[in-house]
Amino acid sequence: MRGRFITFEGIEGSGKSSQISLLTKHLRSKQRAVTLTREPGGTLIGDQVRKILLDPANKALDPSAELLLYAASRAQHLKEVIRPALENGAIVLCDRFSDATIAYQGYGRGLALNMIHILDRLVTDGMRPDLTVVLDVEVAVGLARARGRNNQQGLEAEARFENEALAFHERVRQGYLALAREAPDRIKIVDAALPPLRVQEKIRELVDHCLT
Predict the structure, then answer these.
(1) 32, 46, 52, 89: least buried by Cβ within 10 Å?
(2) pTM of the predicted protein model
(3) Is 41 exposed, middle or buried (0-12, 13-18, 19+ CB in 10 A)?
(4) Tens digit of pLDDT for each residue in 27-81?
(5) CATH number at residue 90
(6) b/e string for 122-158 if b means 16 or more Cβ within 10 A?
(7) Interval 90-137: pLDDT, tens
(8) What is the rounded radius of gyration, in angstroms, for the C-alpha atoms of the chain?
């Protein structure tokens, strides 16, 4: 039986990593097979692409080149990790997927949405998650969280997007909200400003419904 593909989206500092970690522990405690992964990355090749994409030194990276690097990482990720796990019946929890590309490179960078959709169909063969959870938070709050985390954990080498202007992140956030309006059956908004355990409760309700 095919597994379930669940993705998590949101602006920087929305709390995706923490919430995915909590959900993974919860599902595994119920003896569910879970594959936890992320984009960009998830594979040896993808992790090398990740370094390029998130390195603050790469300020000159052209938006179109950025888009194609994400697509390359995703193609490898699907082949090596996502599709095999789903075929084996696992629940795949992925930190970012195609919706992030539309939000960041489309709404954020201003690349043509039709071009992004065409490229995404080529890479994914039209594959869509069974459920996408968007953790929504005000941009100023999310950026403050993300920058504080980077300083505490020494993640400055992956802070290229955190260094973008406030207006860029606001466009990304509005992109996610627009995507949710377009696909309300798949994309669910969760208020990430709530206490973390309450956020987790809401996520588990959505995931439980997806798995039934």
Answers:
(1) 89
(2) 0.94
(3) buried
(4) 999 999 999 999 999 999 999 999 999 999 999 999 999 999 999 999 999 999 9
(5) 3.40.50.300
(6) ebbeeebbbbbbbbbbebeebbebbbebbeeeeeeeb
(7) 999 999 999 999 999 999 999 999 999 999 999 999 999 999 999 999
(8) 16
Q: Rounded CA gap, 211 and 27, in Å?
A: 11
The predicted structure's pLDDT at residue 178: 98
Q: Within 13 Å, how many C-alpha atoms sit on residue 202's CB side? A: 16
Give every CB contact of residue 15 below 8 A, 6+ residues apart in sequence.
Answer: 135, 137, 145, 192, 196, 199
CB atoms within 10 A of CB 115: 13
Taken in order 100, 106, 111, 113, the sign of the CA dihedral is positive
Rounded CA separation 92/82 (Å): 7
Per DSSP, helices labelled H in the chain are 16-29, 44-54, 63-77, 83-87, 98-101, 113-124, 139-153, 166-182, 196-211
Gap between the Cα atoms of 186 and 158, Å rounded: 29
Q: Containing domain of residue 160, as a range?
A: 4-211
Phi, psi of 164 (to 5 degrees): -70, 160
| Per-residue tokens: 10 | 């949101």
| φ, ψ for residue 4, nearest 5 deg | -120, 140
Rounded to the nearest 5 degrees, what angle is found at the Cα of 96, between the Cα atoms of 17 and 33?
70
Residue 156's alpha-carbon distances to 17, 54, 91, 133, 148, in angstroms, are 17, 9, 31, 26, 10
The total domain count for the chain is 1
